[in-house]
Automatic annotation (TrEMBL):
Name of protein: Prephenate dehydrogenase/arogenate dehydrogenase family protein
PROSITE patterns linked: PDH_ADH
Superkingdom to which the source organism belongs: Archaea
Domain Prephenate/arogenate dehydrogenase span(s) in chain numbering: 1-239
InterPro entries given in the database record: 6-PGluconate_DH-like_C_sf, NAD(P)-bd_dom_sf, Preph/Arog_dehydrog, Prephen_DH
Keyword check for Oxidoreductase: yes
GO molecular function list: prephenate dehydrogenase (NAD+) activity
Length: 239
C-alpha cells in the first residue's frame, strides 16, 4: 500500500523504515528539505499530493491537530506515533471520521528499537492492520490498551520519571567514579541518557501529562521529614 509519513524527524524515519519493506513510503514535512533528506536516506519518495492508503503522523503532540486538518481526506486510514492518545484520537476522529484509525506509542527512542509499542485501535481495518503487522514483523512487541489507560500510565512512566531524573541531574554534583554506589551509578547514567535527548520532546511531555508536581511534593516531604516521618515515607514508598 501507499503510505505517507508526515514528519521526517527521528521517529518518522524510524516508522518509515519499519514500513518500507512491504509498502511504498513517501515523506512530508513542514521543512521540505528535511523531507527530501529523509526520502533520500531511506530510498523513499516525497509527497506527490495524491491520495494514499495510509497516512502516518509522526509529529509533536502540539502539532497533531493541525497536521490532521492539513492532511484530512488524503488517506483511507490514519495512524500516529505521537505518544499521546486522548487529544490525538479526538483530532483524528474530527479530520478522518470515515477512515480507519489507530494510535500507537513506541515506548522507546528509535535508537533502542525494537521495543514495546502501545496500541489503541479506534477504528480498525485492513490498512491499519497491515501497518501493525509490519511493526510486529520488525521485532516490536505490540500490546492493546485504551486511551485513558495509556495517558494515565504516561503520567508515571514519562512525566514523573523524567522530572525525577532531571531533578537529580540538576541537584547532583560530579563525583569521582570510585565513590558511586550501586544506586547512584546507574542513576547518573540514566540522567546522562535523558539529557542527551531533545529538550523539546521532554518539554511537550511535561506540558501534556501531569506528574512533575507530585515529584516535587514528594521530594519536599522527604527533605522536611524527621527520622520518624522519614520512616513512614519509606514504608509508604515500599507499598
Amino acid at each position: 500500500m501507499r503510505v505517507l509519513v508526515v514528519g521526517a524527524g527521528t521517529m518518522g524515519r524510524w516508522l518509515a523504515a519499519e514500513l518500507a519493506g512491504d509498502h511504498a513510503v513517501a515523506f512530508a514535512d513542514a521543512d521540505a528539505d528535511r523531507a527530501a533528506d529523509a526520502a533520500s536516506s531511506l530510498d523513499c519518495g516525497t509527497d506527490d499530493g495524491d491520495r494514499y492508503d495510509l497516512l502516518a503522523l509522526a509529529v509533536p503532540m502540539s502539532a497533531v491537530g493541525a497536521a490532521a486538518r492539513d492532511y484530512a481526506g488524503r488517506a483511507d486510514a490514519v495512524l500516529d506515533v505521537t505518544g499521546e492518545m486522548r487529544d490525538t484520537l479526538a483530532a483524528l476522529r474530527e479530520s478522518f471520521p470515515d477512515a480507519e484509525r489507530v494510535s500507537t506509542h513506541p515506548l522507546f527512542a528509535p535508537g533502542n528499537a525494537p521495543g514495546t509499542v502501545a496500541v489503541v485501535t479506534d477504528a480498525p481495518g485492513e490498512r491499519t492492520e497491515a501497518a501493525l503487522d509490519a511493526l510486529a514483523a520488525a521485532g516490536n512487541d505490540l500490546f492493546e490498551t485504551t486511551a485513558a489507560e495509556h495517558d494515565r500510565a504516561m503520567e508515571t512512566v514519562q512525566a514523573k520519571t523524567h522530572a525525577a531524573v532531571l531533578a537529580f541531574a540538576l541537584a547532583g554534583e560530579e563525583v569521582p567514579q570510585p565513590f558511586h554506589t550501586p544506586v547512584s551509578g546507574p542513576l547518573s547514567d540514566l540522567a546522562d541518557a535523558v539529557v542527551s535527548g531533545d529538550p523539546r520532546v521532554y518539554a511537550e511531555i511535561q506540558a501534556r501529562f501531569d506528574g512533575a508536581e507530585r515529584v516535587a511534593e514528594a521530594a519536599e516531604r522527604l527533605a522536611e521529614a524527621d527520622p520518624e516521618a522519614f520512616a513512614d515515607l519509606f514504608a509508604e514508598a515500599r507499598e
